[in-house]
Amino acid sequence: MYTKNLDKKTFLKKRGWFFLFGAAGSALLLFYDNAFTFFYRDILGLDAVLLATVLTVFSVWNAVNDPVFGFISDRTKSKWGRRKPYILLGAIPFGACFWFMFNPLVDLTNASQTTLAIYAFIILFFYDGFYSLVYSNWMALIPETYRDQNELRKFNLKRLSINVIVGIAVYLSYDKLRFIDSPNGTNMFYIGLIPAVLMPIFLLLCTIGIKENPMYAKTFKTSVGMSIKQAFQNKHFVGFTLYHSMFNVAKTLLMTNLSALAYYNLVTGKFLGFGVVSLVTTVTFVVVLLMYPLWNIIFKKVTKGWTNVVCLLIFAVACVIFQFVTEIKGAMVVAVLLGFAQSGYSLSHDLFNARQLDYHFAKTGQRAEGSYAGVAAGIDRLILIIPAWIVALIFAIGKHTAGTLPENMTSSALLAVKSVCGIGAAVFFIISAILSATLYGLRGETWKKVEAEAKAMDEKLIEEEKNIEKLKEV
After folding, report:
1. Residue 8's pLDDT is what?
2. Long-range contact pairs involving 293-301 (C-beta distance under 8 Å, separation at least 24)
3. Which of 13, 27, 379, 404 meets the CB 3.0–4.6 Å disulfide criterion with 167?
């Protein structure tokens, strides 16, 4: 990590670990992932088609704000750096969004469909705006800070481990919190309170571990139009973004509907007092954590540049099995497969992202993490319109109406709910694997060449900075 007053190793030892609080904060996003759709669709009764419409409009806004924030961040020049000011600015309001998402300002219990849709859109508008402001900058700092691949791999191992540990705590508490004073598991008070309090704390602490390289800001002079053009000319960026977006579609179908499986008793039974949501997600995260060391070896010696493809196919197999699971024991088997796949995918994903960013750096001499992250997030958000409409389509085929009580569900409606997490998710994991195999080319010798070029460019910038400092001394 760059600092003017301390050498890199000393700074990392003294303050670098604070940066990892950002990983703990990102795990709190799981409250949104698990509860938003369940709360507005299954508890409040927002129609699936109307919810899909809300998410579509929201995604268009998201596709705009992500690139804008990225471009602004890349072009920011301040004594605190390009990224840190925005994390400081967005930390507290981002936390507040969680509170108002699950503890609405107005009573929505018997609200009209229009009122529900408007409120859902407004809260998503602010939630994602502040998310983009904060986490697009935090994620941009990772490849800018950890330039060596081994250093990056070690950091990501720590980051993902912290994310998993906090994620386990989130999932273990999720069902317990919902059932406080609520036999049906519809109490969202604490689901909003915990991230509202902890998110700002974690984000503010992470800024203590940030010290940016000022040379990256000095060398960035590209216009917005040229930044967009360069991003789409980077074929590896396009391939990376498309396959990861399809992964997110599949994961959204899988994870955001787990609560519905429990609510409609599609997977029955408990283990150690935990139901399907807490148990499946917790087992998944435990396996993820345990498998990191193994995947670190497999990545380097066996699967190498094809790790993500292998993992995506394992995801698909797990979802197909999930389609036919009816008891908690079978769900645990699925969770083990999901954890094994997620562990390898997470490690390879961050390295593949760094590779396509280094490809740009090697070609242009500019670190454009903000712009790239913004364009990628914009594309991703537009593609994430798909899950809501897939759900609406499957529900329509199964004749399932949002807000239907469990005792009133038909067999076709129950099959529709199950198919979202099962076959529906599996199809998009397979699509993601195909796109990764065919469109992302930074593997083998091609990557080694780019890595060498990026390293040479870094050394050039360091030498330029030294010369600038010498001139100042004279």
Report:
1. 55
2. 294/343, 295/343, 295/344, 295/347, 296/153, 296/157, 296/347, 298/344, 299/344, 299/347, 299/348, 299/351
3. 27
